[in-house]
TrEMBL record:
UniProt gene name: purL
Organism: Rhodovastum atsumiense
CDD domains: PurL_repeat1, PurL_repeat2
Pathway: Purine metabolism; IMP biosynthesis via de novo pathway; 5-amino-1-(5-phospho-D-ribosyl)imidazole from N(2)-formyl-N(1)-(5-phospho-D-ribosyl)glycinamide: step 1/2
This protein's name: Phosphoribosylformylglycinamidine synthase subunit PurL
Segments forming domain PurM-like C-terminal: 199-353, 564-699
Positions of Mg(2+) 2 binding: D114, D265
Function (record text): Part of the phosphoribosylformylglycinamidine synthase complex involved in the purines biosynthetic pathway. Catalyzes the ATP-dependent conversion of formylglycinamide ribonucleotide (FGAR) and glutamine to yield formylglycinamidine ribonucleotide (FGAM) and glutamate. The FGAM synthase complex is composed of three subunits. PurQ produces an ammonia molecule by converting glutamine to glutamate. PurL transfers the ammonia molecule to FGAR to form FGAM in an ATP-dependent manner.
A biological process from GO: 'de novo' IMP biosynthetic process
Length: 727
């Protein structure tokens, strides 16, 4: 029996006293148990963005190549030749801590549906992962489950996982971040949207049956964790990648007809959010009959069916005369197909079950008129400038330690569990370039894809960190030769009710916006994940950036592997900035100072120059300089090509450890056959450039004469994760 609806129950459902009072005012009566559940999920932070919408509006979202920006299931950009790329990133943070395998797996499944819902065939998955202290057994359990979940779902559904990033920090001990990104390709004149239309048209449920898994998952994702968080496993969804594969094929087959008017996947808040969003966007009403919903469990209530987050389900509005065509397709693929309602002209959602009206709610307050908060903000204090920090170990020892540390060690243990080549179109696999490169089938062109964020920068200075995340994504795409087109973001922050957290969020948005404008890199989709705290301790903020770029010819893409006989040239200015660097943390034992400043004019100028040189065929390998600084970048290129390097002395006036390990931005290392020609071109363009050394023998030789064998570097680089995970 449903419990009595009152303010106490509303609080359990995540509604504040003011919000519950607003529900009473809207309804003019006490809501039913099901109605309260519907309000609670639609007004949750996860679904309504009630704390973040006011800030997200500051992001640039338009460009001539943007077809659809934020507001649809995913962003859509024109990539030429009549094609569109459809892509988005989304979080599954809370579920992945409670049940790591299923939390991560269903995160992949959900983002796949966001993309193929719009008519695209998915061609690539990426992920951005943040884990806690790796020495903790709980962290190791989360790493194992998350990586297996991503691989298990993506591999089985037949979409390659081609890239991503991983960070470790104790702030993620009780709240790991699992951000999943999917990219798909569609004809730009065959994009499917979610706005319902046509009074009387049938509303059709397709896919898997509905169960009790995932109920109130959206509200769980809108609250802090406490000590009992691991007891919330019933709110974690359970995925089936084989059914997802059938659903992809059935939907794409139906999309080749003219049957679909609107389509929406059932993600967070399940049948509630999909029906409310479709009807709300279309300005129509909706009458649902839950007796028609396919169910895999007996005795399910209206509340359970409306809030279930069972996976692999979609909702469609079909043309009445094409209903039989659609049914035949889904039955062929052995998927459920059921007419569960009709569009009305009432502007209300009416839910019927077993002869009773369980919910009757005006749609506007659930969708466009959900609460919107202008929460107070407190700016993050600017870090104190970093004074002189002596070098305690020397460059050779520091490099060996850095390249094996958790944030810089080889990710092969992770990506070897992912199928990165299924489909046969992957041009640059994980670790082979600064961004993944995936060719478009039956076309010469390719997409470059990356995810980027440096949380320690964002903690120290959220505005600079937000700008740097965008700039690094832009650099990583550029380093392959691609033209960056657009961004999807995943804003991972703590409790928005704390002014200092909202201050971080607002500042990060300012930095991101400035960078996106300066780099012509608009935001076309994204996700906000707040309340990433455990027992009051927030995570390092992580505004993760998923970047997409295009190459007109996949053969033009360059990687980072060196070859013997090439000259190394540094593009960009080096000042030796050690604040918030990995060298400072791992070698000097400090987390201090401001992050490196981001000069957006220099980013644009240097990147455009590098890209032009790559596309002109004058660059054999390219790597941007980021975490770990210049010497780490060179070492990574040497390891990728199994080729040694003899380095030239550091610039005068900069301490050697600051030269080699400072994390100044807007820099690239290029490997070329004619350094003199490149330096002349850079000088003519007003670009700072300097010879670094030459690739050749089997060692990395420092200007001091100290040598580090590639075998030693490789052993250090590859040791950490297999040792940590016991395999």
């Amino acid at each position: 029996m449903a419990r009595e609806v009152n303010q106490s129950l509303a609080r359990e459902f995540g509604l504040s006293a003011d919000e519950y009072a607003r529900v009473l005012d809207i309804m003019g009566r006490t809501p039913s148990f099901t109605e309260l559940g519907i309000f609670s999920v639609m007004w949750s932070e996860h679904c309504s963005y009630k704390s973040s919408r006011v800030w997200l509006k500051q992001l640039p979202t338009k460009a001539p190549w943007v077809i659809h920006g934020p507001g649809e299931n995913a962003g859509v950009v024109d990539i030429g030749e009549g094609l569109a790329a459809i892509f988005k990133m989304e979080s599954h943070n809370h579920p992945s801590f409670i049940e790591p395998y299923q939390g991560a797996a269903t995160g992949v499944g959900g983002i796949l549906r966001d993309v193929f819902t719009m008519g695209a065939r998915p061609i690539a998955n990426l992920n951005a992962l943040r884990f806690g202290d790796p020495s903790l057994p709980r962290t190791q359990r989360v790493i194992d489950g998350v990586v297996r979940g991503i691989g298990g779902y993506g591999n089985c559904v037949g979409v390659p996982t081609v890239g991503g990033e991983v960070n470790f920090h104790p702030s993620y001990n009780g709240n790991p971040l699992v951000n999943a990104m999917t990219v798909g390709i569609a004809r730009k004149d065959r994009i499917f949207l979610s706005a319902a239309a046509g009074i009387g048209n049938p509303v059709v449920y397709v896919g898997s049956k509905t169960g009790r898994d995932g109920i109130h998952g959206a509200t769980m994702a809108s609250a802090e964790f406490a000590q009992d968080s691991e007891e919330k496993r019933p709110t974690v969804q359970v995925g089936d990648p084989f059914t997802e594969k059938l659903l992809i094929e059935a939907c794409l087959e139906l999309m080749a007809t003219d049957a679909i008017i609107a389509i929406q996947d059932m993600g967070a808040a399940g049948l509630t959010s999909s029906s409310v969003e479709m009807a709300g966007k279309g300005g129509v009403g909706l009458d649902l009959d839950l007796d028609a919903v396919p169910q895999r469990e007996t005795g399910m209530t209206a509340y359970e069916m409306m809030l279930s987050e069972s996976q692999e389900r979609m909702l469609m509005v079909l043309r009445p005369d094409r209903q039989d065509v659609a049914r035949a397709i889904f039955e062929k693929w052995e998927l459920d197909f059921a007419v569960v309602g009709y569009l009305t002209d009432t502007g209300r959602i009416v839910v019927r079950h077993q002869g009773r009206i369980e919910a009757d709610i005006p749609l506007a307050p659930l969708a466009d008129q959900a609460p919107l908060y202008h929460r107070p903000t407190v700016e993050t204090p600017k870090p104190v400038a970093l004074g002189h920090v002596a070098d305690p170990v020397g460059p050779a020892t520091a490099l060996t330690q850095l390249i094996g540390c958790p944030d810089l060690c080889s990710r092969a243990w992770i990506w070897d569990q992912y199928d990165s080549t299924v489909g046969g179109q992957t041009v640059r696999r994980p670790g082979a370039a600064d961004a993944a490169v995936v060719k478009i089938e039956d076309h010469a062109r390719a997409l470059a894809l990356t995810t980027d964020c440096t949380p320690r920068y964002c903690q120290a200075d959220p505005e600079a960190g937000g700008a740097q995340a965008v700039a690094e994504a832009w650099r990583n795409l550029t380093a392959t030769g691609a033209t960056p087109l657009a961004v999807t973001d995943n804003m991972n922050f703590g409790n928005p009710e704390k002014p200092e957290i909202m201050g971080q969020f607002a500042a990060a948005i300012r930095g991101m916006s400035a960078a996106c404008v300066a780099l012509d890199f608009p935001v076309v989709s994204g996700n906000v994940s707040l309340y990433n705290e455990t027992e009051g301790l927030p995570i390092l903020p992580a505004p993760a950036i998923g970047g997409l770029g295009v190459l007109e010819n996949a053969a033009q893409a360059v990687g980072l592997a060196l070859a013997p006989g090439l000259d190394l040239v540094l593009i960009g200015e080096t000042r030796g900035h050690l604040g918030q660097s990995l060298w400072l943390r791992e070698i000097a034992g400090q987390e201090a100072g401001p992050p490196p400043p981001v000069d957006l004019v220099a980013e644009r100028r240097n990147g455009d120059f590098v890209r032009a040189e790559i596309l002109a065929g004058r660059v054999r390998a390219c790597h941007d300089v980021s975490d770990g600084g210049l010497l780490v970048a060179v070492a990574e290129m040497a390891l990728a090509g199994n080729t040694g390097v003899r380095l030239l002395p550091a610039a005068e006036g900069i301490p050697p450890h600051a030269w080699w390990f400072g994390e100044d931005q807007a820099r690239y290392v290029l490997a070329v056959s004619d350094a003199a020609a490149l330096l002349a071109a850079a000088t003519a363009a007003g670009i700072p450039a300097r010879r670094l050394g030459r690739a050749g023998d089997g060692d990395l030789t420092l200007p001091s004469g100290d040598t580090i064998s590639l075998d030693t570097l490789r052993a250090a680089h590859e040791r950490f994760l297999p040792t940590l995970m016991g395999r």
